[in-house]
């Protein structure tokens, strides 16, 4: 994924935000959808928008975001606030009562799941936007046995930070010592944001290398090869649709 769209060719013009959701401003939004699934509603892409303030209303989707540029303040229904700046990741659970405020232009990567199942959080009144803390302690996890590792088996660690009520949409932290694997179809969709080390993904005859600050998305079922020569730590957001 590239912050200016594929090949740096820019973003597409998107329709104006409905007036009923805008409290202040005349926002102009552009974006690019890298992935969209009409069955599950999962969407992954880039969004850019000029200054505006939204109405106070429930957030309609589960939304994981990485701010590429700009600053956003989320005001909750109880008056508490969260401010995110460029380079930070944050999340708004579906149903969170919130007002989105930005005093300038903002650009972000996003991974959205609308969850049409009707499943609700255990305590909907407690829902709040929150930032992802990259310093959270991770625990050792087994390397999946179905992966064919080339050479020494790596050490994996992970920390699950959020899982939606359906158990399909998850994000957290993941770390691995250097390893390479043979080509295999990935069993889930995943947005990856490395913040330590460099990773290389190969598929469809292309090779892409991602360092801290980069963003990669791999759709479910894609034939993929992972290779890394140093320890990699990343924030991930994944989606495993239920059968």
Low-confidence stretches: none
Q: What general form does the structure show?
A: globular
What integer is the average pLDDT?
Answer: 93
Structural class per helix/strand content?
A: mainly beta
Specify Rg, calculated over alpha carbons.
18 Å
Q: What is the end-to-end distance?
A: 28 Å
* Number of helices, where a helix is a run of at least 4 consecutive DSSP H or I residues: 0
* Oligomerization category of the chains in this entry: single chain
Query: Helix coverage percent of residues?
Result: under 10%
Q: What's the total number of strands?
A: 25
In N-to-C order, the SSE pattern is EEEEEEEEEEEEEEEEEEEEEEEEE
Strand content: over 45%
Output the strand order for the largest sheet: 1-3-4-12-7-10-13
Query: Describe the biggest sheet?
Result: 7 strands, antiparallel
